[in-house]
Amino acid sequence: MQSLVPQNAHPAGVFLVRDGFLAHMFGSRVEIFYQSLLKTSIRSLSVQYPLHGWPWAFALSAGAVAVLQANVTDAHQVPYLLLDFLANPTIGPVVPQKLWLPRSSRDISRYVLEAALGLPIFFVQNDGRIGFTVAEASAGNLSSLLGCVRAVSVGGVTSVSVRIQWPGYKDWRRQFPTRDATAERNVITLEQFVRQVGRTLDSFLLVCLLSYAIWRKDIIIIGAVHVSTGSWMPILQLNCALPV
C-alpha cells in the first residue's frame, strides 16, 4: 500500500480547515466539527504544522484547550493534541461525508455541544504510513498498527455506533461494544477498534456497492472521528475515483 502522505516539500499555505483529511471529508462544515470538539473556534487557536517526528500533522500545544488531553508527543517528547494530517489527494479522493448530528436540537446540545468529544483516532502504521484497506482492517491484518495493544478511549460508553454518510447511499450504522468478551471485560484495544471499523465498512459495502471485492481493497480507512456521544465516523480515502 502506498503512503497516504505527500513525499515532496511542504506546500505553501497549508491550512487545517482547507487541507486536512477532515476538511476534505466534511467540507465547509469542518469548522462546526472543530467547534464541537474544542468548544471554541479553531480560528482562535494557534495550530502547529508540522511537528518534529510527525511531518504531516496538524496539532495544538497541550493545554491549548482545557477540555482535551494530549494524545501524541513529538520527537522531543513535547505533548500535543493531534487534530489531523495533511491529505494527499494525488493518491485518490477523500470520501466526502455529511457531518452526522442527532436529529433534535436538544440532543445536539446534550450529545455534541455540551458533551466531551474525543480527538480523532488515526490508524498510523509503524513506518509512518496512515491507514489500512477495508480488507486488511476487517480481517485483522494489523501487525504494523502503531500502538495496536493500547486501550482506546471512545468516550466512556458501553457501546459505540460507527456511522457512514457516503454520498448517494443510504446512511449506514453499525454498533459494537467497547469492552472485550473476556472475564475481565477489558476496554477494547486500538487493534480491536480498527477491526470493528473495518467490519462496519464491510457490511456497508456488501449491501451498497456491487463491486464489493474490488472496493474492499481500494478503500483505505484513515481513522475515525468522534461526532457525538457514542457515535464515530470513519475517515476514508480511495486508491481510485469515486464510484458513480
Sum up the overall morphology in one term: globular
Helix content: 10-25%
Going by helix content, strand content and strand pairing, the class is: alpha+beta
Q: How many structural domains can be distinguished in the coordinates?
A: 2
Q: How many helical elements? A: 7
Ends: how far apart? 24 Å
The rounded Rg comes to 17 Å
The major β-sheet equals: 6 strands, mixed
Mean pLDDT: 91
As residue ranges, the low-confidence spans are 1-13
- Number of DSSP-assigned strands: 9
Strand content: 15-25%
What pattern of helices and strands is seen along the backbone? HHHEEEHEEHEEHHEE
Notes on the protein architecture:
The protein is α+β, with helices and mostly antiparallel strands. It has 2 domains: 12-87, no CATH class; 98-244, no CATH class. The protein is 25% helix and 20% strand. The chain contains 7 helices and 9 strands. The strands form 2 sheets. Strands 4, 5, 6, 7, 8 and 9 form a 6-stranded mixed β-sheet that branches. A 3-stranded antiparallel β-sheet has the order 1-3-2, with no helix packed on it. A hairpin with a 5-residue loop joins strand 2 (72-73) and strand 3. The chain is globular.
List keywords for this structure.
244 residues; 7 helices; 6-stranded mixed beta sheet; 9 strands; alpha+beta; single chain; 2 domains; disordered N terminus; 3-stranded antiparallel beta sheet
How would you summarize the topology of this molecule?
Elements lengths: L15 H4 L1 H6 L3 H9 L18 E5 L10 E2 L5 E7 L19 H9 L7 E2 L9 E2 H6 L19 E6 L7 E6 L12 H19 L3 H7 E10 L2 E8 L6
Characterize this entry briefly.
With 244 residues, the protein is an alpha+beta fold.
